[in-house]
Amino acid sequence: MKKTIILALLLTLLTTAKAQQKYANYYTNLPKPMAQAQEPNIPDYAISLKDYGGKGDGLTLNTEAFRQAIAHLTAKGGGHLNVPDGIYLTAAITLGSHIDLHLSKNAIIVMTPEKKDMIRKDGKRSAPGISAEDCTDISVTGEGIIDGNGEWWRPVKRSKMSDVEWKTYLSKGGTVSKDGTMWYPAPLKHLAQITESPEKETNIREDVVRFTDCQRVMLKGVTVLNSPRFHVHPVTCTDVIIDGINVRCDWNVQNGDGIDLSSCKRCLVVNNTLNVGDDGICMKSGSGEKGLKDGPCEDILIQGNTVFHAHGGFVIGSDVSGGMKNIVVRDNRFCMTDIGLRFKSNIDRGGKTEDIYISHIYMTDIANAAIFFETTYENNKLKDGAEGQTKFSPNFQDIHISDIVCRGCKTGIYAKGGDGMIHDIDVERANIFYTDKATDIGSNCGIRLKDVVLKTFDM
Question: Is the peptide bond before 321 cis (omega within 30 degrees of 0)?
Fold first, then answer.
């Protein structure tokens, strides 16, 4: 018996070591040392959702089946919850420590459109579709799909809709703003309004996948789509691996960010494909005093990803008060994003960036700027005089961008901000084909260009 237990432990350690070695390969040839993200530890024990009454018929609400299955795994010390082929309608799913939610290829988890069933116990806002808080060793894996059913929550802008699309939204019911510029999905023909106003109802919507204050988190292989708000959002987590997932929603989805890391440490974001309505891969660290308390995004490696439509392929901001430290972004491609590399903040949300290294980025058909800095995002007034300095002024500095190829953008490099807010930025070895302006850089912005080729059409 003892020999069997020892053999099982040795096999577990060997398997873990091989997996860690696989991810260690990403951490070679870095510009400076970086702590490696660690994988979650999931016990080798598995159950099926169907054993707890789960029905993949697209009609049955599976909230209780998920709850019972996760409770069973928790009592056993963790394991794998397998979701077989089928469409599983459910309200919010809360994971626990040492649990893997594994979706088979034809498994689709769909969040219920019944908004009242998605409200948190405190009644203040909706719950994330899949979440965990203060947990360790969590994963969501497999080839299946997680559908946030976000069209029942999100407002839409008339300016982003064709006439046909706008009429489709109006046919659902909802409310149009007095000026005719916004449509709110409340009340709807088949769903009652659950708050005092349609505007408030859209303000309580949540992310589809959100982990808060967790350690050793992994998302691998799954598709996450159609979120009410952000799609994948780890917040103040440590050791996060996001590998080979697909994130998608329509191009005009309001606040439809793809992958957002908020004040997270030791993260690896690799081999993912995104096509979303807002920022693609975005780093945040809070605003104001809360951002300072939560701390920076630190030791982040982002490699081998593809971003199609997004407001920015790789983004820092707009909330940066906790700072950014030791972030490497390399070997990524952005096709048809609004902006390629986007750095945005304002005087109430800013913070300091340190040791940011971005290299080997390949971009095509960028609608606006290939490289973009702004310090007046959603706040065009610089306070306290010309310099506009406050406790939370942006401090974009120590950013090193190299080996960039962009075929098609409106402006090559754009930078505008208050005095002392954009400085010590290096752009080296870049080929950029633009259609309007080579550069639009403020005289008070410190951006050094070396071996940068900026070309447009021959006239």
Answer: no
Structure tokens at 426: 């290096």
C-alpha neighbours within 13 Å on the C-beta side of residue 253: 30
The Cα diameter of the chain in Å comes to 82
- Tell me: the pLDDT tens digits for 235-266? 999 999 999 999 999 999 999 999 999 999 99
Which residues sit opposite 94 in a β-bridge?
131
Helices (H) and strands (E) counted in the chain, each on its own, are 5, 32
* Tokens (6 digits) for 80: 């794998």
Residue 95 to residues 66, 72, 73, 445, Cα–Cα distance (Å): 9, 12, 10, 46
Tokens representing residue 38 in the block: 């660690």
Using an 8 Å Cβ cutoff, are 432 and 452 in contact? yes
Cβ–Cβ < 8 Å for 348, 375: no
The answer to whether 99 and 81 are in contact (CB under 8 A) is yes
Contact 69, 88 (CB under 8 A): no
Q: What is the rounded CA–CA span in Å between residue 271 and residue 274?
A: 10
Is the distance from CB of 359 to CB of 387 less than 8 angstroms?
no
Task: Give CA angle at 437 (281, 385), nearest 5°.
Answer: 75
Contact present, 231 and 152 (Cβ < 8 Å): no
* Amino acid found at 96: G
Strand partners, 422: 396
Tell me, yes or no, if the pTM score tops 0.90: yes
Per the CB < 8 A criterion, the answer to whether 204 and 173 are in contact is no
**Residues 378-437: pLDDT tens digits?**
876 654 444 567 889 999 999 999 999 999 999 999 999 999 999 999 999 999 999 999
